Amino acid sequence: MKKNDGLGDYILLQRMMASHLQTPFHLPPLNHLTCIVTGSTSGIGSETARQLAEAGAHVVMAVRNIKAAHELIQQWQTKWYASGEGFPLNIQAMELDLLSLDSVVRFSNAWNARLTPLHVLINNAGMFAMGGAQNFSEDGYEQHMQVNHLAPALLSLLLLPSLIRASRSRIINVNSVMHYVGFVDPNDMNVISGKRKFSSLRGYSSSKLAQVMFNNVLFKKLPLETGISVVCLSPGAVQTNVTRDLPRVIQDLYSALPYFIFSPQEGCRSSIFSATNPQIPQHYQKLRTNEKSVCTLFVSQNCKPTNCSEEAHNIKTANRVWEKTVELIGLPSDTVERLVDGEDVQCRYGTH
Ligand SMILES: NC(=O)c1ccc[n+]([C@@H]2O[C@H](COP(=O)([O-])OP(=O)(O)OC[C@H]3O[C@@H](n4cnc5c(N)ncnc54)[C@H](OP(=O)(O)O)[C@@H]3O)[C@@H](O)[C@H]2O)c1
């Protein structure tokens, strides 16, 4: 999709383009996988976590509302037993609030202390406070930028030791076609300079573009020997709680277009595909060994590799976004190199 292609067209055509896909996917046994899914208390994340667990994966729901996660786990276990399965789902919940970088460090430290391999990290949690005012996190960052980009970036980097411990692993970022209309000024990630006027749409699309740019640099920095594939994806336009802050008229439009809008079962296909498809590491490796590749693997809502936006190909800006991100999340500039060498890094956050 090019920047000027209509998002409306993309919504209207998404079901047709994805008509070849099974819903849900028939998954092979995944008992060998440990997967962390952020934001798995609703929508795409909840469906992703449940389907991975039902295929046998050990799933960790990384959520800010632990009570809601425990209630879901209870419901899923009950249904699972009722369907005649003898073993419980291997699923648990851990607290993670992306609006607090301290929380991200606490989560990562607790996870890394287990000294077990992590095969799949799905950075799914996200927010879109459509029409809302500009709000800042307790760390002082614009909330869309923090929840959709900065906190997942910190989580991905801090979990590298556990991802490296698995011989093959994946970092999956649930991104959006909205990154095509995004613009990031690395000197003004919080949109406070007054050069651009803040709107929630700008906040959301910029955060999604920043995520793609950051992961394009991570793609280049991570040596192939780590066995880690970095993927960004679009789930499509999906009926979830993400519409809860949308103006009534747009919520009504979503509800009036049930044929065109994906259900969460359909919207999680590109996440499940990216997390489990055996071709992903080969595809990633081919891309990574091509000197001309600028962008990491981007999977469309039809589960096909696609191009990230033209702006995301801007290497100079992507490198500045990387540098600024690492600075804002309180990590040293050589974090990846040190973690890959098995050294520790100190983060400015996580001491409270
Ligand atoms: N739906 C779409 O059409 C669409 C399109 C493109 C991309 N996406 C992306 O898909 C991803 C999943 O969204 P969704 O559509 O499934 O929306 P959703 O139903 O609203 O789910 C979002 C999840 O993120 C969690 N979350 C929000 N803020 C958080 C925070 N500060 N810390 C931890 N978790 C937090 C929410 O937790 P709570 O339940 O506690 O609020 C919820 O579990 C997002 O990254 C979104 O940008 C969605």
TrEMBL record:
<dbReference type="GO" id="GO:0016491">
    <property type="term" value="F:oxidoreductase activity"/>
</dbReference>
<keyword id="KW-0560">Oxidoreductase</keyword>
<dbReference type="Pfam" id="PF00106">
    <property type="entry name" value="adh_short"/>
</dbReference>
<dbReference type="InterPro" id="IPR002347">
    <property type="entry name" value="SDR_fam"/>
</dbReference>
<comment type="similarity">
    <text>Belongs to the short-chain dehydrogenases/reductases (SDR) family.</text>
</comment>
<protein>
    <recommendedName>
        <fullName>Short-chain dehydrogenase/reductase family protein</fullName>
    </recommendedName>
</protein>
<dbReference type="InterPro" id="IPR036291">
    <property type="entry name" value="NAD(P)-bd_dom_sf"/>
</dbReference>
